[in-house]
Write a structure and sequence with these properties.
Layout lengths: L1 E5 L7 H14 L4 E7 L18 E5 L2 E4 L3 H12 L7 E8 L6 H4 L1 H11 L4 E6 L14 H17 L10 E6 L9 E4 L11 E6 L5 E6 L12 H6 L2 E7 L9 H8 L3 H5 L3
Parallel strand pairs: 1-2, 1-5, 2-4, 5-6, 6-7, 8-11
Antiparallel strand pairs: 3-4, 7-11, 9-10
Helix pairs in contact: 1-5, 2-4
Subcellular location: Cytoplasm
Protein name: 5'-nucleotidase SurE
Family: Belongs to the SurE nucleotidase family.
């Protein structure tokens, strides 16, 4: 099995080593693990691609490369350049430092890397580690739950998950809860949640020269989402598995909107 690993925290991020270890276990001794990750942190870039400027790619080690681009760029670079157009069997993106549940899913470069893989027809899983008050005291470090449970979750998804070949095929967003590994209660298949009463915003600062700068600032991460959704499951100690597609159409609204808005110019002229 050939696995391509990427992330959005950068080539030197501790979570990337966790994903590489998971990939090595899944691939087995006869398999291959290739890493193409951003040279610098790319958190929050979502599904960005470097369409208007080229990116430098550098070999860091055997089967390990850094690219000056986004996670989606890295998947493209890994597939078409590093692997010479030979499709990997799986893309793992992560393990992100911090959750990519609820609305964070939409901003996440980690999810963006998995999304690009899905668009390329490659099975893909995004992996993220929720952080919380207990994280700093975990004996195994911040990524302890992902280390302990990551390989099992990925194997179960490969063996029992749905892997469609639709135009917009399924990929998966996995979030490990902010509790010690031995306190993880299991897995839950969830919908993407929404944290109410909090959004991203800006925090202004003036530099010593008097120039005004704005920092993007996130809201509280431990607000509960609705039952059956990702952040709610994570805060209850469960690993969330959320199936995603790149099709952003609101299919459940199409019928009502067609009834209200569909028309033909000929019928309109005829007064029908």
């Amino acid at each position: 099995m050939r696995i391509l690993v990427t992330n959005d925290d950068g080539i030197n991020a501790p979570g990337l080593k966790v994903a590489e270890a998971i990939a090595a276990e899944i691939a087995g001794p006869e398999g291959e693990v290739w890493t193409v990750a951003p040279a610098f942190e790319q958190s929050g870039v979502a599904h960005k691609i470097s369409y208007t400027h080229p990116m430098l790619i550098a070999k860091m080690d055997e089967r390990r490369f850094a690219a000056e681009g986004s996670p989606a760029d890295c998947v493209l670079a890994g597939y078409y350049e590093v692997l010479g157009g030979e499709k990997p069997d799986l893309v793992l993106s992560g393990v992100n430092r911090g959750n990519n549940a609820a609305e964070n899913t939409l901003y996440s470069g980690t999810v963006g890397g998995a999304m690009e893989a899905a668009l390329q027809g490659i099975p893909a899983i995004a992996l993220s580690q929720y952080l919380g008050p207990q994280s700093a005291d975990m004996d195994g470090g911040l990524f302890e739950p992902a280390v302990a449970h990551g390989t099992r979750v990925v194997r179960r998804l490969l063996d029992q998950g749905l892997w469609t070949e639709d135009d917009y095929r399924l990929f998966y967003n996995v979030n490990f809860p902010p509790v010690p590994a031995d306190a993880v209660r299991g897995t839950r298949v969830t919908a993407q949640g929404f944290r109410r009463h909090t959004t991203f915003g800006v925090e202004p600062h003036n530099s010593p020269s008097g120039r005004r700068f704005l920092w993007i600032k996130g809201g509280p991460q431990h607000l509960r989402t609705l039952p059956g959704t990702d952040a709610e499951a994570n805060l209850d100690g469960y690993i969330s598995i959320t199936p995603l597609t790149c099709d952003m159409t609101a299919h459940d609204r199409l019928g009502a909107l067609r009834d209200a808005l569909d028309e033909t110019i000929e019928a309109k002229k005829a007064g029908k």
